[in-house]
Amino acid sequence: MDKLSVKDYDLKGKKVFMRADFNVPFDENRNITDDTRIKAALPTINYILGQGAKLILASHLGRPKGEATDSLRMDPVAKRLEELLDGKKVVKLNDCIGEEVKERVGKQADDEVILLENLRFHPEEKKNDEAFAKELAGLAEVFVNDAFGTSHRAHASVVGIAKYLPALAGFLLEKEIDFLGKAVTNPEKPYVSILGGAKVSDKIGVIENLLDKVDSILIGGGMAYTFLKAQGIEIGNSILEVDKLDLARSILTKAEEKGVGIILPLDHVIADKIDKDANIKITDGVVIEAGWMGVDIGPKSIEAFKECLSKAKLIVWNGPVGIFEIEPFAKGTNEIANYIATLDAVTVIGGGDTASAINQLNLADKMTHISTGGGASLEFLEGKELPGIAALTLK
Ligand code: AMP
Prior knowledge:
Elements: E1 15-19, H1 36-50, E2 54-58, H2 75-84, E3 89-92, H3 99-106, E4 112-115, H4 123-127, H5 130-137, E5 142-145, E6 167-169, H6 171-184, E7 191-195, H7 204-210, E8 216-219, H8 223-230, H9 245-258, E9 261-263, E10 268-271, E11 280-282, E12 293-297, H10 299-309, E13 314-318, H11 331-341, E14 346-349, H12 352-360, E15 369-370, H13 374-381, H14 387-390
Parallel strand pairs: 1-2, 1-5, 2-4, 3-4, 5-6, 7-8, 7-13, 8-9, 13-14, 14-15
Antiparallel strand pairs: 10-11, 10-12
Helix pairs in contact: 8-9, 10-11
This protein binds adenosine monophosphate (AMP).
Residues 196-199, 202, 221-222, 239, 294-295, 319-320, 322-323, 325, 352-353 line the site of adenosine monophosphate (AMP).
């Protein structure tokens, strides 16, 4: 990486502003239901504290409409973070800018970590407002970005602030760049990508970029039906993007020209509605009869996918191959996950739904890398430079 990392900078005695991704899920009583994102920031937090720096943490949480919203305050995050930090007090402030914040930060004791209030209570955060970014920067002497999941957004605490302070990558960010970077630059071969999820339109950029890098693309999930339809195959009521049929055809042609194998489902689990109590059948072949919709890949497809994956040295997976949230439609996604967990290949899982599927199956530690950013990992795999990474200080 050509950007400065926390390891490259003398942090002793410095005040450090760290942008983290503490956007954790809650139940109806405001209990954190999954603290993975808080835990994921600990290596960088502990390193910075270990260097004898004073740490100010900031994150967004949920989607406030640019104003203070009590149900989206950072207090539960502060509480959980304090439990996870050895002997440090976490002082949560009620805003992220302003006189009171400045004053409290000025009095920060050695055994205190300060957590600022939800950055998105200010609309200026998402607008990358210069004055707002400057105020955030004014709280510290060094900026650390460890929020990979937000690094595809040019927001004030991710991009704007980097103009005013030395801007360093945290360990989580570095790890993401390292593993996802391996899939983009000089990937190990054979390189097989599994793409699924609801729509072709969300993954066009990724497919086009992958065509120059991979040996094979396995396409499942809702997006497969647009590709099948583009070849004249009947898909019943399956999800279809009519306006992407031409694009699907051109992707198939390009793949052929470049010698990239595109493997589409050979059979399907079909249902008469999207519901766990739906009537379900498995098709013999690729055709789906009228009145039914494809909700998962079938057994022959699973075997074909496995056969291709068995030879891979690098596997990148983004998007479930069926409606895995509904148990009877989850077999394809689960079997592929279980299978790649047994392989020697480097396995990189795009964030979002695919990461949830892997976590539900307790397979996280069997994968080489699970990205913490859904949208960010997709943009990275599209070959785009993420604004939050671009903004960091060069070595
Ligand atoms: P994405 O966020 O694009 O990765 O899409 C994930 C979503 O795709 C999940 O919520 C799945 O339920 C959905 N999905 C997967 N397979 C299908 C399918 N055959 N039909 C409709 N939606 C699907």
